[in-house]
Amino acid sequence: MSDTEIDSPPRRRTLRRFAIDAALFLLILAAVGAWQTRDLVSSGTPAPDFVLRDLDGVSHRLADLKGRKVLLYFWAPWCGVCKAVAPNVASIAESAGDDVEVLSVALSFKSAEDVARVAREEGIPGTVLLGDGAVREAWSVSAYPTFYVLGADGTIRHSVVGYSTWLGLRARLLWASL
């Protein structure tokens, strides 16, 4: 132990330990996030296009949203984490207004009725699309929920797997504007 550490007040040592602990926590959090997203479609690449039907049978093409920021929310009706994050996605859809298009893509479901029921019960916002194996493969979705943030130019800006707070989603959308 150095003389300065012995002479430093206990409060300063406590703050230093807190700062080191916080830095280690953030480093671990970043490492876990990088590990979870390692197999996803890379940031900076063009978003894989798709044409999917919504719950009313209307077709939607992702490429038609070029020029707008998009929050893509891949989820499954049986996924508890997806249900827990749904209010955060709903808040993003409400607070972002016309700045962001929120698209939720249901995967790994038994029926469209099951998707509609869960979407209604959990308040899943935006347009709910019925995904398929080809979309799951094109977007490398292997866990739920999976989020992608697309810039107005149609490229992938950010991705995240698992629970995300409103603040985390909002920050990713703001970064997509830079």
Describe what this molecule looks like in 3D.
By secondary structure, the chain is α/β, with parallel strands linked by helices. It has two domains: 3-36; 51-176, Glutaredoxin. The protein contains six helices and seven strands. It has a five-stranded mixed β-sheet with strand order 5-4-3-6-7, covered by helices on one side. It has a two-stranded antiparallel ribbon with strand order 1-2. A hairpin with a 5-residue loop joins strand 6 and strand 7 (156-161). The longest helix is centred in the N-terminal third of the chain and has 27 residues, at 10-36. The model has no long low-confidence stretch (mean pLDDT 86).
Features:
five-stranded mixed β-sheet; alpha/beta; 178 residues; Glutaredoxin; 20% strand; two-stranded antiparallel ribbon
First-residue to last-residue Cα separation? 45 Å
CATH architecture of the largest domain: 3-Layer(aba) Sandwich
The biggest sheet amounts to: 5 strands, mixed
The computed structural class is alpha/beta
Low-pLDDT stretches are none
* The CATH homologous superfamily of the largest domain: Glutaredoxin
Strand proportion, as a percent range, falls in 15-25%
Rg is 20 Å
Helix segment tally: 6
Query: What is CATH's topology name of the largest domain?
Result: Glutaredoxin
Order of helices and strands: HHEEEHEHEHEEH
Mean pLDDT: 86
Strand order of the largest sheet: 5-4-3-6-7
What characteristic shape results from the CA principal axes?
A: elongated
Kindly summarize this structure in a few lines:
The chain is an alpha/beta fold.
Topology:
Elements: H1 3-7, H2 10-36, E1 51-53, E2 59-61, E3 69-75, H3 80-96, E4 100-106, H4 112-122, E5 127-130, H5 133-138, E6 146-150, E7 156-161, H6 166-176
Parallel strand pairs: 3-4, 4-5
Antiparallel strand pairs: 1-2, 3-6, 6-7
